Amino acid sequence: MKKSQWHNFKTLFLREAALIAKDHSLLLTLLIAPVLYAFFYGSIYINKEEEEIPMAIVDMDHSGLSKQLAEQINNLQAIELISAPGLDEAQKMMYKGQTQGYLFIENGLEKKVLSLQSANIVLAANAARFLPSSDLLSGVTQVSLTVGAGVRLKFYEMQGLNEATAMHEVMPLNLDNRPLFNERVSYGAFLLPGILALILQQTLLIGLTGSMASEREKNTINQLSDTAGNYSVALWGKGSFYFLLFMCYAFFFLTVNFTVLKLPVRGSAFDITVIMALFLLTIIPMGIWIGSLFKSQLLCVQIMAFSTYPVFLVTGYSWPFESLPLPLQWFSSLLPTTPFLKVYTSLVQQGGGLMNNVEAILHLLLLWLFYSALSLLSLKWINKRLSATTT
């Protein structure tokens, strides 16, 4: 970069800082919203796992086995058992929202199990809420299999089999289930890293597009281009302020927020820095291009704020990318968030490296070139229109 271009670059950096300082809405969005949202949304999922989900139990057997079953289920961290006198009462408790389901233990359960006959326990879970029903099902299933296996083990030992042979008869095939990375399979540990990345992206987009829309609303884009000397310097001179600011936010999130929320960062700090920088470099021209399409700052900010949740849903983070309708897959592929979250998740949560995500990185690089070209063409077109209007 020539000395004059470097001077113009610095001038645009300081110009952007001055513009933001004068605009209270941008100041609030860029300096307060990222930290406020990160701690607010993070605090919602800080416990990461549900605890003491209320579930009614109807014990018609009143045997030692049924009491043992109820005791072990109640000992689970996720479940709190509430005794119900009958099936009708248990159903009413669930319908009123007092419990998230009920467990029905039939009469004669212990006798059937001890005689190796098939016995049933019925779990009714409120599937209108996904997490409680899933936790109830997994907890009750785990305890039921454990208790049933213990009873059968004692039965075979009473038949004269030694412990090893009896265990083989009870469980001829053992499943060694080891969840990786999110070891406790908690919803918060899965969701929080993606939410923090989305907050980083959306606050940047809202602030940058709002600034660009304000430039067009006030007809100052020609001043931006004149100060820069060329459109490339105008693009990155204006964007450099946002790049520096949001790299600081990214570092803050990955250190302070991840520590407060007890989220591990398993990947290399260098690799994470590289992908964060590439992500921001892609978002900046995208934001400048989108902002240049609007002549009203208010309308631009409203639309960008509205886009937050739809963007999160189509990136493949909360729902598998392959399961999206084909048009949404095409739209998702145009968002830098989609390849970024693939690499980001691999680095932060799985301990992968950049070389494990070459395809997604190339995707992000292509989007960087694509949006850089769009933003430069947009700046050139608007500047020509303004020049033609003034002459």
Automatic annotation (TrEMBL):
Alphabetically ordered keywords of this record: Cell membrane, Membrane, Transmembrane, Transmembrane helix
Keyword Membrane: yes
Regions crossing the membrane: 25-46, 185-208, 241-260, 272-291, 298-319, 360-379
Membrane topology: Multi-pass membrane protein
Sequence ranges assigned to domain ABC-2 type transporter transmembrane in this UniProt record: 25-377
Entry's Gene Ontology cellular component terms: plasma membrane
Gene3D superfamilies given in the database record: abc type-2 transporter like domain
UniProt-recorded Gene Ontology molecular function terms: ABC-type transporter activity
Subcellular location(s) of the protein: Cell membrane
UniProt keyword Cell membrane present: yes
Main location per the UniProt record: membrane
Cross-referenced PANTHER family: ABC TRANSPORTER PERMEASE (PTHR30294:SF46), MEMBRANE COMPONENT OF ABC TRANSPORTER YHHJ-RELATED (PTHR30294)
Protein name: ABC-type multidrug transport system, permease component
Lineage: Bacteria, Pseudomonadati, Bacteroidota, Sphingobacteriia, Sphingobacteriales
